[in-house]
Design goal:
homodimer; about 260 residues; Rossmann fold; eight-stranded mixed sheet; 8 strands
Chain lengths: ~260, ~260
């Protein structure tokens, strides 16, 4: 199963991603967790120290390593024998294999097109074992969709909060995911503080699109100032996300379960 | 005076931008307000109806129009006679001239490099009248900095909230703004709910970098579900932002005041 998590900036993509990564790693099997945001913060959310994440070789460098090995850079020739590369480019934490997209760049040096192009190729052609999952935490907004970075996923998850702007973004994501041929889209409503807020989101989407409603968490807000976010400790979030996770598994079950 | 507003997704860039645009338009003169985020939402924040903003010709198309007029696309040959173009590509609202970066794209069609390159060229070479201001609301995160979109501004404003991630982003922005040769950087602390949160931000930056602390606003949160955000009605925000604005004018005063 291959999933991408998107949405407007600040809606809680990384929090939702790390909960999902933890739940699936605990119950299903290996999770390849990819931080696809140049403004990266997934590592610390799943409990990997910042220094460890920063010293990890970025995925984009895999391209040259594969080119050296295969002569043409076409890593699908190598697939599924990517194991050596995976060891080399990922940080292992239990069942989680964490990857980061690219290095920080100098101001004015270049865009992240190269990183996005490689991630697209990697995700599209990666052959997964039964019970293995890829979860990509995408950059804020919609440019990764115009680039097609997550073209190869089975389902695009879109996180929204009770606000017009994040809902407008979600509708753009839905449209662009369709352009990319992504088979499924699911909405996760986050930071809900009242029935009114829940209804506001509900009236903006078809019922069957919404995978769950996550309550606003004071604990997560307070935790954001701590050295490590440790969202795996937020019980309410995990309970809700376990339900969301079961729905996702049912939705894409035809392919991987 | 040319300003850009950046920061991690969700910190409140657009809210801060629209307050600043309103204050400067009221007190100083013409404000060229540019939404430089592909996931655009500045227009409705400053009171421009979504349909009007959507029907506006995007700035990136100005390139071809200028090429047709000058023969080489070098609009600095035309400058400061950009007035016709400005009428053609902006939406006028009192002293505000609103521009949007580009059109929504099809999923998988292309990146926004072309739009960013043109904005960079436009901002760098635009000659402003005394008392005129450019305010660019940048996309979430750091890719606009690696691209150098806002290279020509006098000051890079970075919005942070009381959380480790937005502070890490701000430090990256600070570093990359220096790479770009942007003369000044200022931090605006947003969504502050307690003394502890204020101290958390204060201890992460040099005193003279921080331009102000904006309280968390229930009104803005609630307003986010309304058809138009109308942040100009939030009194507390405006009072705080007026102080921030005076500091900005002093900081870049040598150039424009």
């Amino acid at each position: 199963m291959k999933l991408a998590i998107s949405g407007k900036g600040g809606v809680g993509k990384t929090t939702i991603a790390s909960a999902l990564i933890n739940i699936i790693a605990r119950n299903e099997g290996t999770v390849y967790a990819i931080d696809a945001d140049p403004d990266a913060c997934l590592a610390s959310s799943i409990g990997i120290p910042d220094e460890e994440a920063a010293s990890l070789k970025p995925v984009v460098e895999m391209r040259d390593a594969i080119r050296n090995k295969t002569g043409n850079g076409a890593f699908y020739n190598l697939n599924p024998k990517l194991d050596d590369f995976i060891d080399d480019y990922s940080y292992k934490l239990g069942n989680i294999r964490f990857f980061r997209m690219g290095d920080p760049k100098k101001g004015g040096s270049e865009c992240y097109c190269r990183e996005n192009t490689f991630l697209n190729a990697l995700i599209s052609s990666l052959l997964l074992d039964q019970n293995d999952t890829v979860i990509m935490d995408m950059g804020a907004g919609i440019e990764h969709l115009s680039r097609g970075t997550a073209r190869g996923v089975d389902m695009m998850l879109v996180v929204v909060e009770p606000g017009r702007n994040s809902i407008n973004t979600a509708k753009q994501v839905e449209r662009m995911a369709k352009d990319l041929g992504i088979p499924k889209v699911g909405i996760i409503a986050n930071k809900i503080r009242s029935v009114g807020e829940k209804q506001f989101i509900a009236k903006n989407f078809q019922d069957d699109l919404i995978l769950g409603y996550i309550k606003f968490s004071e604990a997560i807000w307070a935790n954001a100032m701590e050295p490590s976010q440790a969202v795996e400790l937020d019980k309410d979030l995990l309970v809700e996300m376990e339900k969301v996770c079961r729905k996702i598994l049912r939705e894409v079950g035809g392919k991987s379960n």
